[in-house]
Amino acid sequence: MYIKPASRLGQIKYSVMDTIARAHEAEKKGKEILYLHIGDPLLFDFDTPSQIIEETYKAMLDRKTGYTETSGITDAIEAVENYSSGKGIKNINDIFITTGVSEAIDMSIAALVDEGENILVPIPCYPIYITSLYKHGAFPNPYYLDESNNWQPDIEDIKSKINDKTRGIVIINPNNPTGSLYSNETIRKVIDLCLEYNLVLFSDEIYDRLLFDGEVHTSPASMTVDATIVTFNGLSKSYLAPGFRIGWMVVSGHEKTNRDYCEAIATFTRARLCANHPEQYAIKPALEGDQSHITEMVEKLQKRRDITVNMLNSIDGINCVAPNAAFYAFPELQFEINDIDFVHGLIDETGVIPMHGSGFGQKEGTNHFRVVFLAQEETLEKAYNILGDYVEKIKK
Q1: Do the Cβ atoms of 86 and 290 come closer than 8 Å?
Q2: Are strands 247-252 and 34-35 parallel, antiparallel or unpaired?
Q3: What is the DSSP letter of 25?
Q4: Mean pLDDT, to the nearest integer, of 235-241?
Q5: Residues facing 35 on adjacent strands
Q6: What does the pLDDT read at residue 11?
Q7: Fewer CB within 10 Å: C terminus or N terminus of the chain?
Q8: At what angle are helices 255-271 and 100-110 packed, to 10 degrees?
Q9: pLDDT at 234
Q10: Whose CA is closest to 285, among 252, 251, 249, 246?
């Protein structure tokens, strides 16, 4: 007797877990593990703001622990609407509170695509978009970010990939895994393509508060009242509450155009009943309360970004484009080696754990790895020194 799993699962990969398993083996052999692979600030010297914890705890004590409205509690939706309006987003059609941004991504894709259709996704890309598309019988349609242009989307490449089965375009801005921040000119061109070809724009903005060097983030939905845009955000990164699993999506554009699409998303929210109830009470104090932790976080991250870029670029055979935001960098290996072999060898021999670039996608003929620079300065310096010694050794 044999129960055959769905064939589409063969397309779904999540390389972080493979890397973690490799790290466990290195740890068993006595290696000191230096973590550069996972984007959880709470594993390092960051902590969830007290007002977020206190309001969630109060909600639990007040017995707000049952089911709630499927799209989210009123306080949370109003706070998200105010935050979105403050960023200049107009023509808001609907707001949905979700179990992390991952659920928002999955439901908004499921509500749009039919089997065999596609959505344009950036390469490199956070893997959840690709996973979700395959899960729903659709396909990722990859377009490239231009490393020579600070990892901006390649507009001509996007345009060349649009076909009669294309339903939308994904932008992740600020970007994971490159840490790039897109220019307004680039965003405007993406919006114009969506209008020209009647596509939905999915705008992932989970890192919109983590900006370096005085940069300013612009939401695409603030630049148009005509395009259909789904804007994603949540509490996991800027608000240091990844375990709360609270995110949201804001659908904007012409109400008549988007009415059926919003209802389709609402159907999925009803099918899963609701997002975490007490944790939804964290949204208002997070967005409207004391923001000083963001200033402190950005100060730490900018120093760690500088250490990352300077030390990696000092290693012969590595080139690292400086990130403008978030807490990721995506350096290129400029010598003959496969990125998976490089990362596995580095873990096995040294205990330093980045992620291989092919886990996020990369242009053919190139090899990259992703580093997360959340760790304290001394840890990063130690890790990059070890990494440099390893590169020097394997290049001989």
Answers
A1: no
A2: unpaired
A3: H
A4: 97
A5: 353
A6: 63
A7: N
A8: 120
A9: 98
A10: 246
Which residues touch 120 (CB under 8 Å, ≥6 apart)? Answer: 141, 142, 143, 158, 161, 162, 166, 168, 169, 170, 199
Polymer length in residues for the chain? 396
Number of CB atoms found within 10 A of residue 124's CB: 27
d(CA 299, CA 293): 10
What six digits make up the tokens of 255?
């109400």
Two structure tokens written together for 4: 């055959």
Residues 46 and 57: their CA atoms lie apart, in Å, by 20
| CA 318 – CA 389 distance, rounded (Å) | 12
Q: Phi/psi of residue 318, each to 5°? A: -130, 135
Cα 281 to Cα 231: distance, rounded to the nearest angstrom: 21
Write down the pLDDT at residue 17.
Answer: 65
Please tell me whether residue 67 adopts helix, strand or coil conformation: coil
Place of tokens 């699993």: 245
- How far is Cα of residue 237 from the mean position of the Cα atoms in its chain? 9
Cα–Cα distance for residue pair 319/52, rounded to 1 Å: 39
Domains of the chain with CATH codes: 7-47+292-395 (3.90.1150.10), 50-288 (3.40.640.10)
Mean pLDDT of 185-190: 98
Question: Mean pLDDT, to the nearest integer, of 115-133?
Answer: 95
Taking 70 as the threshold, does the pLDDT of residue 12 lie above it?
no
User: Residue-wise over 186-216: b if at least 16 C-beta within 10 A, else e?
Assistant: bbebbbebbeeeebbbbbbbbbbbbbbeeee
Cα separation, 76 vs 287, whole angstroms: 10
Letter for the amino acid at 203?
S
Question: Long-range contacts: 298-305, Cβ < 8 Å, 24+?
Answer: 298/209, 298/210, 298/211, 298/212, 300/45, 300/46, 301/210, 301/212, 301/327, 301/373, 301/374, 302/212, 302/213, 303/377, 304/373, 304/374, 304/375, 304/377, 304/380, 305/179, 305/212, 305/329, 305/373
| 373: nearest Cα among 296, 314, 308 | 308
Amino acid letter, residue 39: G
For 88-110, what is each residue's pLDDT tens digit? 998 999 999 999 999 999 999 99
Task: Give percent above pLDDT 70 in the chain.
Answer: 97
β-pairing verdict for 369-372 and 328-329? antiparallel
Is the overall model pTM greater than 0.85, yes or no?
A: yes
